[in-house]
Design a protein that fits this description.
Elements (H helix, E strand, L loop, with lengths): L1 H8 E4 L3 E4 L4 H29 L9 H27 L4 H35 L8 H23 L2 E4 L6 E4 L2 H25 L1 H6 L11 H10 L12 H37 L4 E2 H22 L5 H20 L1
Antiparallel strand pairs: 1-2, 3-4, 4-5
Helix pairs in contact: 2-3, 2-10, 3-4, 3-10, 4-5, 4-6, 4-10, 4-11, 5-6, 6-9, 9-10
Length: 333
C-alpha cells in the first residue's frame, strides 16, 4: 500500500530522482481565489437581474432573457466543474488532464454560442421583432454560422486536444494545437464584428433622421463621430422634440455606444487567451488555463449584463418596438 501511494504521488525523474505529481499550493490557491471572486460576482449580478425582473418571472421569460439566464447557469457550472478537477481531483493523472481540457472546450464553446446568439437576437429585435425568427434570413444565417462554426471548432478541439502530465515537473499541461487556435480567433472576431456592424447598419436611419439631429437636442460628439465614419448626412425632421423623444434619443445613443464598446470588450480576453496558447504552442499549465478560462467566461457574462443593464422586460419590449417603428418611418422618409 505504501508503494502504491508513493507511485501515485511521485514520478521517477532522471534528473532529480523524484518529482511531485499534481499542482502546487500556489496554483491551487490562485485558482481558488479567482474562482471565489468570479462566483461571488456572478451571484451578485444574478441576484440583481432577478430583482430587476421582478414580476416578469411569474409571467415567463422571453427568448433573450432565457439566453442571459443560460449564460449565468453555464458560467457557474464551469466554475463548479473546474473546481472539482483542480482542487478535488488534483490534476494528477493524464485522464484528469484530459477531463480538464474537455471541460474548458465544452463550456467555453457553449458560452460563446449563447453569447453571440444573444447579440443576434438584439439584431433581430431591431430589424423585425414582429417577424418569426425562422422567416428572418439574417437570424437564420447568423444562427447557422454561430452554431456550425463554434460547434465544428469545439469538436476539432476535443479531438485534437493536448493534455499530458510532464515527467520533468509532474505538472499537468493542456491546450489546443494551432490548427484549432487560429480558427477560434478568426471565427470569434468575424462573427463579433459582423453582428455589431449589422446592428449599427440597422440603426443608420435613426442616426441619419432621428430626433437626435434636432438643434434643440444636439447629438453628442461621439454620435457625430459615428456619422462621419459611416458618411451619413444629418437630415433634421423639422419637428420639435418632446421630452419622450429626448429620452428615447439619449437611450439610443447609450445603446449604440454600449454595443460598440461591448463588442470590443468581448473580444479582448479571447484574443489574449489565443495569443497565450500560440506563444506556448498549445501547452499551458492546467491551473493557468482553467483560471484564464474562468476569467474569460465571467468577463463575457459581465459584459452581456452591462449591455442590458437597467432594462426590465417591459422596457426592453418598448424600446425594441419603438426603435423598429422609428427605423421604419425613417427609411420610408
Amino acid at each position: 500500500m505504501k508503494i502504491l501511494a508513493r507511485e501515485k504521488t511521485f514520478a521517477n525523474d532522471d534528473i532529480s530522482g523524484y518529482v511531485r505529481i499534481g499542482e502546487d499550493e500556489l496554483g491551487r490557491t490562485t485558482f481558488v481565489i479567482v474562482a471565489l471572486l468570479c462566483c461571488f460576482s456572478l451571484a451578485c449580478l444574478l441576484g440583481y437581474r432577478s430583482k430587476q425582473l421582478g414580476g416578469a418571472l411569474g409571467g415567463g421569460l422571453h427568448y433573450a432573457q432565457v439566453l442571459v439566464a443560460s449564460l449565468f447557469v453555464l458560467s457557474i457550472g464551469f466554475l463548479v466543474a473546474s473546481a472539482i478537477v483542480q482542487c478535488g481531483l488534483g490534476l494528477s493523472t493524464r485522464e484528469i488532464c484530459h477531463s480538464a481540457i474537455s471541460i474548458c472546450i465544452a463550456f467555453y464553446g457553449s458560452v460563446k454560442v449563447i453569447m453571440f446568439s444573444f447579440l443576434l437576437e438584439r439584431t433581430h429585435a431591431i430589424r423585425a421583432r414582429q417577424l418569426s425568427r425562422w422567416r428572418d434570413p439574417i437570424w437564420i444565417v447568423g444562427m447557422i454560422s454561430i452554431v456550425f462554426g463554434f460547434g465544428t471548432v469545439a469538436i476539432c478541439g476535443l479531438i485534437w486536444s493536448i493534455f499530458d502530465v510532464s515527467k520533468l515537473d509532474g505538472r499537468c499541461r493542456i491546450g489546443i494545437p494551432l490548427k484549432v487556435t487560429i480558427p477560434i480567433l478568426v471565427l470569434d472576431i468575424v462573427i463579433n464584428i459582423s453582428l455589431t456592424a449589422t446592428f449599427i447598419y440597422l440603426l443608420r436611419p435613426l442616426l441619419k433622421f432621428g430626433g437626435i439631429t434636432n438643434p434643440a437636442f444636439p447629438a453628442s460628439r461621439a454620435t457625430r463621430s459615428i456619422r462621419r465614419i459611416l458618411r451619413l448626412r444629418t437630415e433634421p425632421l423639422g419637428m420639435e422634440l418632446c421630452s419622450t423623444n429626448r429620452t428615447f434619443s439619449k437611450r439610443f445613443e447609450v445603446l449604440l455606444w454600449r454595443s460598440m464598446i461591448g463588442s470590443v470588450l468581448i473580444m479582448l480576453p479571447t484574443v489574449g487567451n489565443v495569443v497565450a496558447f500560440y506563444n506556448l504552442r498549445g501547452r499551458e499549465l492546467a491551473w493557468v488555463c482553467l483560471t484564464v478560462c474562468t476569467l474569460d467566461i465571467t468577463w463575457g457574462v459581465c459584459v452581456i449584463h452591462w449591455l442590458t443593464l437597467g432594462e426590465t422586460s417591459q422596457e426592453e419590449d418598448k424600446r425594441a418596438s419603438g426603435m423598429s417603428a422609428q427605423t421604419l418611418s425613417a427609411e420610408q422618409a
